[in-house]
């Protein structure tokens, strides 16, 4: 009898690593786009010379920046979670539920590659 904990094969881990790297790349590109949208304050146009509806425009612009800022924070967390998943792949602990210790289903990991809990464990939280 062996005490070895069940884990995904090296081939499976390589597949997950490739998926995670692609997701990180796309998420980083999305983050860059979001950041450029809310950091683009350098408008040298003539918008500030026309007082008509200026208050409405400024309010709308502020709301957009706040929404984009929230999106950026959420995207940064997603990238951090993906990088943590990549670390678990490297340590060969990827795919093990942190609550039950069982393997998370491959189908779940393909959809949510940064998952740390199985559906069973998620349902226990409710």
TrEMBL record:
Residues 93-122 form the Zinc finger DksA/TraR C4-type domain. Coiled coil: none annotated. Pfam families: zf-dskA_traR (PF01258). Gene3D superfamilies: DksA, coiled-coil domain (1.20.120.910). It comes from the Bacteria. The keyword rRNA processing does not apply. GO terms for molecular function: zinc ion binding. Keywords: Metal-binding, Zinc, Zinc-finger. The keyword NADP does not apply. This is TraR/DksA family transcriptional regulator. It comes from Flavobacterium soyangense.
